[in-house]
Prior knowledge:
Blueprint lengths: L7 E7 L3 E8 L4 E8 L6 H19 L6 E8 L3 E2 L4 E5 L4 E4 L1 H9 L3 E5 H12 L8 E6 L3 E7 L2 E2 L26 H5 L1 H13 L6 H4 L9 H9 L3 H25 L3 E5 L1 H6 L1 H14 L9 E4 L6 H14 L1
Parallel strand pairs: 1-4, 4-8, 9-12, 12-13
Antiparallel strand pairs: 1-2, 2-3, 5-6, 6-7, 9-10, 10-11
Helix pairs in contact: 3-11, 5-8, 8-10
Amino acid sequence: xxxxxxxxxxxxxxxxxxxxxxxxxxxxxxxxxxxxxxxxxxxxxxxxxxxxxxxxxxxxxxxxxxxxxxxxxxxxxxxxxxxxxxxxxxxxxxxxxxxxxxxxxxxxxxxxxxxxxxxxxxxxxxxxxxxxxxxxxxxxxxxxxxxxxxxxxxxxxxxxxxxxxxxxxxxxxxxxxxxxxxxxxxxxxxxxxxxxxxxxxxxxxxxxxxxxxxxxxxxxxxxxxxxxxxxxxxxxxxxxxxxxxxxxxxxxxxxxxxxxxxxxxxxxxxxxxxxxxxxxxxxxxxxxxxxxxxxxxxxxxxxxxxxxxxxxxxxxxxxxx
Length: 321
C-alpha cells in the first residue's frame, strides 16, 4: 500500500495505564493497532519512547512506511492546550505544561495534533460513530474515572480555560464527606467496584466473591457486568444507583445546553451495555427540562475501544492537512 492509494493517519490514545496506537484511513477505518503499557513511573521520555515503538509496530502491521503517514493525532488525559500542543496537567502521568506535540513530532518527523483523550473519543463518535448527524452532542466516558467532552455547533467546545467537559469533577453530593462528593466518586467503575467491595465486607450477600475467587481487590468492569447480568441483588442496586446519579447530572447538562444527543462510552459502558445505557437514559428523560429536552437521545458508543484512536486520527486530518 502506498500513500497514493489512500491518505493515512496515526491515531494515539494515551491513558494512564495503556497507550493505543492505530493506522487509520481518511474515512476512519482502522488498518492496524498496537498497544503498549504507558509506564508513567519511568518518566516522560520513556513514555514517548514506548509510543514511538508502538507506532513502528502499527505501521509494520498495516504494511506502510512511516513516510506514508500524513500526520499524527493524539489524545492525552487531562486538560490540554490544543493550539500550543501542550499537556497542561495530566495527574496520572505526573505531567505539567509538557510540549508533547512538539516532542513527539520531532521523534516521528510528523506534525502532531494534540487534544484531550475524551475529546478525541467524542470527536471520533461524532465523525464516524454513534454521534453522526448531531450538531449539539455530549460524550460521557465511564471507566476508572468519569470524563466528558462536547461538540457544540459542530465544533469541539473547550471553554475559556480549555477544560470544558470535566463532568467527573462536578459536585454531585455536596453534603457527603470530602472524597465522596463528585460524579467520579459516585458513578465511575472505580466507585462502583469499591462500593460493592465495601458492602460485601459489611456482610451483604453477593455472587461477586465467587467470580473473583474471593479476591475482592480484583473486581473489574467485567465482574460487575457479569454479576449484573445474573441479577445479583447487591450489584444491581449499586449499578442502578450510579446510573440514576449519572443520568440526573446529564439531565442538568441537557437542560443547560439543550443537547441533541448523549453518547456513553468507556469500559464500564462497554461491559454492561444496553441495560446501563437505558438506566441512564431513564434518569435523563425524567429530570431534563423543559419537556422538549426529554427527547435527547442517549446512546452507547459504536466505536468502543477504537473511538480515541479514530478520533485522534481524524483530528489530525482536520488540523494538519
